[in-house]
Design brief:
There is one protein chain. This protein is mostly helical. It is built from 4 helices and no strands. The chain has a domain at 13-35 and 46-52 and 61-70. The chain is elongated and about 50 Å long. 0% of the residues are buried.
């Protein structure tokens, strides 16, 4: 994805670093946990657990992407 984007619109080191930090922030985890916390329920709804498990299964790919993006920031 990054290679394709770079061919069309090259990014500066500063832009890549900013992108890295935006992707690093685990927004979807916080969104799910915040929903549960503010819902005042005594149990975690099954759908929320499914969403968190889905995010957990995506984490290795996310980590590889972040590692590649960080190495591009250092280049």
């Amino acid at each position: 994805m990054l290679d394709s984007y770079e061919r069309v619109m090259p990014m500066s080191r500063k832009e890549r670093t900013c992108l890295y930090y935006l992707f690093l922030y685990p927004e979807k985890y916080w969104k799910q946990l915040n929903f549960y916390y503010n819902a005042n329920k005594a149990w975690i709804p099954g759908r929320n657990i499914e969403k968190l498990q889905n995010l957990e299964s995506q984490q290795p790919d996310r980590n590889r992407f972040l590692k590649r993006l960080w190495s591009a920031c250092l280049a």
